Amino acid sequence: MAPYQFIERPSPFRPTSAPALTVHALTPADLEAGHPSAQASAWARSAGFKADAGSLLFLPGADGMVCGALFGLGSDPLDQPFITGKLARALPAGTWRLDCPTLSPERQALGFGLGGYSFDSYKTPKPIEAFLALPEGLDADEMDRQLQAVFLARDLVNTPTNDMGPQALERVFRALGQHYSADVSVILGEALLEQNFPLIHTVGRASAEAPRLLDMRWGRKGAKRVTLVGKGVCFDTGGLDIKPPASMLLMKKDMGGAANVLALALMIMDAGLDIELRVLVPAVENSISANAFRPSDIYRSRKGISVQIDNTDAEGRLVLADALAYADEEKPDLIVDMATLTGAARVALGPDLPPFFTDDEALAAALGEASLAEDDPIWRLPLFKGYEKDIRARAADITNAPSGGMAGAITAALFLKRFVSASTSWVHFDIYAWSPSEKPHASIGGEAQAIRALYRHIRSLA
User: Fold this and answer.
1) Which residues are catalytic?
2) Which of 115, 167, 330, 361 is 20 to 30 A distant from 37 in Cα terms?
């Protein structure tokens, strides 16, 4: 197979004025009240249509052809704000207009667009056939850039590691930078040791593909400085503390943090925000060979903090440590890191609610507001100082894997916090980057998480 290429997907949207058939989105109460018309309600009753969530009924015209449709929102439509994603896969070819006063125009359009995604790099691609005439007043460019960003994150996570190793991730990184006229540089292989990135080198040195640190800069010098750091572990065997086969099945997604920060960077650059943006991605594969790092090894990080290796499967925090220390040296106004870091986060909050950690109260409040405004769920967990004792090591400053397994997401965040000391505003997201079940707006597979909320907040900075 040819390696994954960064390309823009075709838009599922048409101008508001485009000729279109109408889909009337209804709750059971709307249907009971006779909406959208007495004739349509009578047809619905005869067909047994009850406006259950996601149900669809086509309306026949006088000539027997389809002249529109009824779409069920269920009794609590706000519980599924992107339910219109079902329409992207269920409607026949043509242009459609939504009559849906219950959901905001943004949710209608974004849901429809997201629902049309499919990962078909290894199959015969299915062209878009159903298009949506944008609801009145929406910015088509803004809707498209959010879709392109989510699709980029999904594509990168879904692509298997044989086509998305460190070298392929670098190609996508460079292509994205070139598309938006950003400056890209890469520190590769042994140069990581020469330029003092020992932990990134340590984790990635056993792979056939050399470890690397990807660095992108874009935007106006002197603007608010935002640095995004994404975990780019393209596959995680667990190292010498090897994972069992069942735990390795989804490890192609261990670069989900990198995928999501690239998607967020796409939105920032495409919107032309007045931001001085930097993106750092340590891209490695945690493999097994004669030179793999070992349990009980001790390494000194870029920041000078010594780290005792108590589990080679806790490698993500190691590569992030050097990248965060590097980001922190410039004292940006905001550092955001994203990583598929701990199973503990999933045990605590499940796959669809990523936790975030910060000691910046104003930032936490702003992110909470952005999350609600965008229907992009996130939840704050504490940087509880009482657990700092758990990351201490007997023979080094800190351990990468505290014993006992308690509060694993918090101790991982506390570990990362040690590497951010100069910057006043830092937030860590422990994401899953995967949708394990079918949703109206998302098929099973790679997923973008928290980036729309982050984008909203970063727009406010600009």
Assistant:
1) 243, 317
2) 115
